[in-house]
Every structure is written in structure tokens, then in C-alpha cells.
Amino acid sequence: SGECAAQRATDEEIREIQALHFEMRACHARQDLSGYYRLNARIHEAINRAAGNPVLSQTYRAINARVQSLRFRTNQDGAKWQRAVQEHERMVEALATRDAAGLRQVLVEHLQHKRDTVLQLMRDHAGLPGSISA
Known about the structure:
By secondary structure, the protein is mainly α. Helices cover about 80% and strands about 0% of the residues.
């Protein structure tokens, strides 16, 4: 979706994503995890929408719905949250410069970091009452 968005997004869509990113950074600065997460989700949805590919957008929504609660927990570690913000900085820059390959790369890294964090979270809580299980 990132590659397609960099190639197909309108200038207006890019400005909207930049504005959402600016608001998200403000939430990070205030340590407002809930607000950050809400804006983060809107950014990813906007990138998928800007890609102009309904199949990719539907796939994203289906997968995201399944892992949403885990994604929220991954930013409760300050260093990981900071890394996610830095990745978002790179995403918005790549989108603004229409660097399709660069946006694809940062989104892949972002996804891999989230995956690794979620897996570690699951391992850490395995076997505990009310824990997350695979």
C-alpha cells in the first residue's frame, strides 16, 4: 500500500496525512497514548486509502481488526514508542517526496518491529491468568 500511495496520493491526501502526523507527534510529546494510537490508526488508514487499491485496503482492515489490542500495548515501552515515532517521521517524508521504494521499506521495517514486539509481549505473558495466547 505504501508504494501505491506514494505513486497515487493526491497532494491533498498527503497534506492530510502530514497534519495527522503532526497531531500524533503532539500526543507523543504529551505522553497521550490513547490519542497517539487513534491518530496512528488514522494515518495508516489514510495511507491505505491513498493507495487506491480496495483489495489492499480490505486486507489491511481485516488483519488490523485482529491485532488491534496487541498493537496498542506495543507502545507502552518508551523506547519502542520513540522508535515508532521515528519510523512515522520517515514514512511521512517518503510519502511527501513520493519515494515509493522508501515508503515501502520503512513500512516493512515498521511492521517487522511491531511483529517482534507483539511476539515478545505474547512470550512474556504466556501462561499468566488472563494472558494473551497465540
